[in-house]
Amino acid sequence: MENKQYGVIGLGKMGSNLALQAVEKGYEIVGYDMYPPPGLSETNLVLAADLEDLVNKLQTPRKIFLYIPAGVAVDTVIGQLSPLLTGGDIIIDGGNSYWGDSIRRARQLKDDKGIHLIDCGTSGGVSGARNGACFMVGGDKDAVTSIEGLLRDLAVPNGYSYTGNSGSGHFVKLVHNGIEFGMLQAIGEGMDLLANYREELDISDILLTWNNGSVIRSWLIELMKKLYDEKQGFNVPKYVEDTGEVNWLVTDAMHMEVPIPVIAQSVMQLIASRDDKNVAPKAVAMMRNGFGGHPFGPDDHIRYERHFGKVGGYEQPAQE
Fold first, then answer.
1. In this structure, are residues 94 and 124 in contact, taking their beta carbons and an 8 Å threshold?
2. Same domain, yes or no, for 31 and 126?
3. Among 164, 186, 218, residue at a domain's last position
4. What is the pLDDT of residues 50-96, one digit of tens each?
5. Secondary structure (3-state) at 267
6. 137 and 191 in one domain?
7. Mean pLDDT score across all residues of the chain
8. Looking at the 3D structure of the chain, how many domains does it have?
9. Across-strand partners of 32?
10. How far apart are CA 146 and CA 154, in angstroms?
11. Counting beta carbons within 10 angstroms of the beta carbon of residue 30, is it exposed (0 to 12), middle (13 to 18) or buried (19 or more)?
12. CB 109 within 8 A of CB 117
């Protein structure tokens, strides 16, 4: 019989919503967060007092998701968690970790204690986590097979893909994020053009039309209209905050000698938004807020992660 019990460490926007969706679909979820958000209680999932309590509440082999910021935080939590686990247990990193780090962590956990690390790229934003997400999963095939039932239950139809060995899930998600940046920038520039036409255009109506039958119809266009209507125009700060993951992809592309001019330029334009007054970065910020709850304007916590926990300092994996 399938062990339908899972742990979730990190009950923020993604972790808590995935946990609640899993509970509704018949899974027992034990969650832990140093600062659990309001609204979570023992009535909708089991809350652990600390990591040791979470581990003790789970049957073996234990299966524990991490939904925490990429970088140093992941190594810290794995360092605290792994001594409490035994061989055959599984850690699933559902955040936006760098794929090279995932290869390193998986190898070290397997060699040291026989623990599996699965890298699980997760997309769909907050609403996807609550109602049906998209997963790109890398790692040991047997370990992945043991959690596939849950992932398929939490995904939208055809929203699950096993991508291959360790690191591949997070690499695929990183490429996904790069494509997302390019799409955001193109839509943002389109909004700038519409806003600067010689006559005032009904941008809300144009977006509605575009999303019904046009070649560019998409969730991003839908979000653009939703946020444009809610904000009554482009009335948001021009500053576009980000956590820096796509910077990794630009660096990887240079090492791989793969040209990605659109993605690279979208990163440059995002940085340029911090000094620019045009409409495009405001439109990008609005769509990012729509799908991921990303902040409008600067965010000190994200800026700290980007500069000290994320960009740079990542060991390149050995060629195999």
1. no
2. yes
3. 164
4. 999 999 999 999 999 999 999 999 999 999 999 999 999 999 999 99
5. helix
6. no
7. 89
8. 2
9. 9
10. 15
11. buried
12. yes
| Cis geometry, peptide bond prior to residue 38 (ω within 30 degrees of 0) | no
Does residue 140 sit in the same domain as residue 243?
no
Query: What whole-number distance in Å separates Cα of residue 257 and Cα of residue 267?
Result: 18
- So which residues are the catalytic ones? 173, 180
- Give domain status of residue 289, yes or no: yes
* pLDDT score at 306: 53
Residue 319 lies in a domain: no
Asked if 273 and 239 touch (Cβ cutoff 8 Å), the reply is yes
| Mean pLDDT of all residues in 266-271 | 87
Reported confidence tier of residue 272, pLDDT bands at 50, 70, 90: confident
Q: Which residues contact 66 (CB under 8 A, 6 or more apart)?
A: 9, 10, 74, 77, 78, 91, 92, 93, 94, 95
36 compared with 26, residue with greater pLDDT: 26
Q: Distance between CA atoms of 138 and 261, rounded to whole angstroms?
A: 27
The pLDDT of residue 276 is: 57
Residue 178 to residue 243: CA distance in whole angstroms: 13
Can you tell me the distance from the alpha carbon of 238 to that of 7, in angstroms, rounded to the nearest whole number?
39
Average pLDDT over residues 234-259: 89
Are 200 and 157 in the same domain? Answer: no
Query: Are 127 and 180 in the same domain?
Result: no
d(CA 100, CA 103) in angstroms, rounded, equals 5
How does DSSP classify residue 288? H
Contact of 211 with 225, CB cutoff 8 Å: yes
Q: Which amino acid is at 74?
A: V
* 117-126 average pLDDT score: 95
Q: What is the DSSP string of 16-59?
A: HHHHHHHHHTT-EEEEE-SSPPTT--TTTSEEPSSHHHHHHHSP
Distance in angstroms (rounded) separating the CA atoms of residues 97 and 302 = 15
**pLDDT band, residue 316 (cuts 50/70/90):** very low
The end-to-end CA distance of the chain, in Å, is: 37
Helical spans, DSSP H, in 39-136: 51-57, 72-81, 99-113, 125-131
DSSP-assigned states of every residue in 204-218: HHHHHHHTTTSTT-S
